[in-house]
TrEMBL record:
<protein>
    <submittedName>
        <fullName>Lysophospholipase L1</fullName>
    </submittedName>
</protein>
<dbReference type="InterPro" id="IPR057572">
    <property type="entry name" value="NonGDSL"/>
</dbReference>
<dbReference type="InterPro" id="IPR036514">
    <property type="entry name" value="SGNH_hydro_sf"/>
</dbReference>
<dbReference type="InterPro" id="IPR051532">
    <property type="entry name" value="Ester_Hydrolysis_Enzymes"/>
</dbReference>
<dbReference type="Pfam" id="PF25182">
    <property type="entry name" value="NonGDSL"/>
</dbReference>
<dbReference type="GO" id="GO:0004622">
    <property type="term" value="F:phosphatidylcholine lysophospholipase activity"/>
</dbReference>
């Protein structure tokens, strides 16, 4: 397992996007994705989740994170990158899973990015039920032979039951490690913004104080692009005596 604090893409002028926190945990390599990049073949990515994937809070669909991610990766991988936005606002995991399983049967993808858990945490979904659903979704992606990144919950200023909420965040992290699925921690990234100042976090959020603004989505897309490139460019890691792996930060 490698913990990466990925810098935002140099192409972005969003200086406040940089972070020293560990926001991306590499729990598996994706050799099939690496081979396609090396062969200069087109890459197809499914971004699925709720409102943060759909792009609620952005000024236009072009500013949602999947659209910006496609642009970011397209600058590096000139042979064609398609990021399909399958976000649907308001969904919990049980609602997204049916769509995820159907999408995997209908199309082949090189990578799935599953943004999950915020609505489950704030709407009172049972913690064990959430874990079981997450496990089911992971199994579906693995059965399809597709790579997966779990994109965990967002941080927002008005979290009411912090203990419960962070248990949901930890469930994503723990199951990612157990099932060997890489995890991008949006929660840690947004916490970092807040730790600098409340104003810093607010600048990344839309007027509702919950969903991201164009600036926040741009930052998220930059970091996710760096994470995906790390997986594709450095899939083989050196094993340490403790069985962990260490990957250097790319870019």
């Amino acid at each position: 397992m490698a913990l990466l604090g990925t810098p935002a893409s140099a192409a972005s002028d969003n200086k406040s996007c940089d972070t020293k926190r560990k926001i991306f945990t590499v729990n598996e390599s994706l050799p099939s994705l690496t081979r396609k990049v090396e062969r200069h073949e087109p890459i197809r990515i499914l971004a699925i989740g709720s409102s943060s994937t759909e792009g609620i809070g952005a000024s236009s669909p072009d500013h949602a994170y999947p659209a910006q991610l496609e642009d970011e990766l397209g600058e590096s991988w000139k042979d064609g990158v398609t990021v399909v936005n399958a976000g649907r606002g308001g969904e919990t995991a049980i609602e997204t899973i049916d769509r995820l399983e159907a999408a995997l049967k209908a199309q082949s993808y090189d990578l799935v990015i599953w943004q999950v858990g915020t609505n489950d945490a704030i709407r009172g979904v049972n913690e064990e039920a959430f874990r079981a659903l997450l496990d089911r979704g992971i199994s579906a992606v693995k059965a399809a032979g597709t790579g997966l990144i779990l994109l965990d919950q967002q941080y927002f200023p008005t979290i009411k039951d912090m203990g419960r909420y962070e248990r949901f965040v930890q469930t994503v992290s723990a199951l990612g490690l157990e099932r060997k699925v890489s995890v991008f921690s949006r929660y840690a990234l947004m916490q970092d913004w807040n730790s600098r100042s409340a104003e810093e976090l607010r600048s990344m959020l839309s007027a509702d104080g919950f969903h991201m603004s164009d600036k926040g989505y741009d930052c998220l897309a930059n970091h996710v692009a760096d994470a995906i490139e790390t997986l594709a460019e450095q899939p083989v890691a050196q094993t340490t005596g403790a069985g962990a792996t260490q990957l250097a930060t790319a870019r």
